[in-house]
Design brief:
By secondary structure, this protein is mainly beta. The chain is built from two helices and 14 strands. The strands form two sheets. Strands 6-5-4-3-2-1-12 form a seven-stranded antiparallel beta sheet. The protein has a seven-stranded antiparallel beta sheet with strand order 7-8-9-10-11-13-14, with no helix packed on it. A hairpin with a 3-residue loop joins strand 1 and strand 2. It is globular, with a radius of gyration of 17 Å. The chain starts with a strand and ends with a strand. This is Late embryogenesis abundant-like protein. It comes from Picea sitchensis (Sitka spruce). InterPro entries: Root_cap (IPR009646).
Length: 231
């Protein structure tokens, strides 16, 4: 918890995630963690998507923060509302719901669907998260779709697209751990300084004409397994 990790790193795309959570309890080998925000670097731009800290959740209130190059993005209200960037050609953001759910697209590069959700009192009771009344741990549920990745792509998620990747996760283990903290840890949400970082802000040599499988990342709270990512 309270750490930043590289999710995807390419020469022209770098995505870090910031994790929030609860300290691990006695007898457990990990913290309970959720993705609070992501920092997306593409070309010379920085895009922030984050869930606000919320005490009591209200579905009608928008708790999603968006910034482009440190400037707030103000989306028009209402489902289906669109916003296009004047400074970052090809960047489009649209609302999927009246609040807390958007699709972010950079043409011919990626599509990210982000939804802000809380940890409910019932989830906390069932899974013993011990969420308190001052913070419902609002976090992001994410879906990634990539259109141009090179064979050298890396990052916690990015490595799964590289040729010859073999997952170190033990299937069937109650709390599977991927590992790799030493390789993927970053000093900041927008720092491309993990050991495997490839970001240089330039065009990549993509695999032309290939649509890569979607990756959906969510809390997996119904099964009580923390962050779960599936292609």
């Amino acid at each position: 918890k309270d750490r930043d990790f590289c999710l995807v790193s390419e020469t022209n795309l770098h995505i870090n995630g910031h994790f929030i959570g609860k300290s691990k309890k006695q007898g457990l080998k990990r913290d309970f963690t959720w993705v609070q925000s992501i920092g997306v670097q593409f070309d010379s731009h920085k895009l922030y998507l984050g869930a606000n800290k919320v005490a009591k959740w209200d579905d009608a209130r928008d708790e999603l923060s968006l910034l482009l190059d440190d400037q707030p993005i103000v989306l028009p209200p209402g489902r289906g509302a669109d916003w296009e960037s004047a400074s970052a050609p090809g960047l489009n953001i649209s609302r999927l719901q009246d609040a807390n759910s958007v699709t972010v697209e950079v043409a011919e590069s990626f599509v990210i669907t982000a939804r802000v959700v809380p940890i409910t009192a019932e989830e906390s009771r069932i899974h013993k998260y011990e969420i308190t009344e001052d913070d419902c741990f609002a976090h992001l549920e994410l879906n990634f779709k990539f259109f141009a990745l090179s064979p050298q792509v890396t990052g916690v998620l990015g490595q799964t697209y590289s040729a010859g990747f073999k997952s170190p996760v033990k299937v069937g283990v109650e709390m599977p751990i991927m590992g790799g903290e030493d390789k993927f840890a970053a000093s900041d949400l927008f720092a491309a300084d993990c050991k495997v970082a490839r970001f240089a802000g330039r065009a990549i040599e993509s695999v032309a004409g290939h649509n890569f499988p979607e990756v959906a990342c969510g809390s997996g709270s119904a099964a009580g397994r923390g962050i779960v990512c599936r292609k």
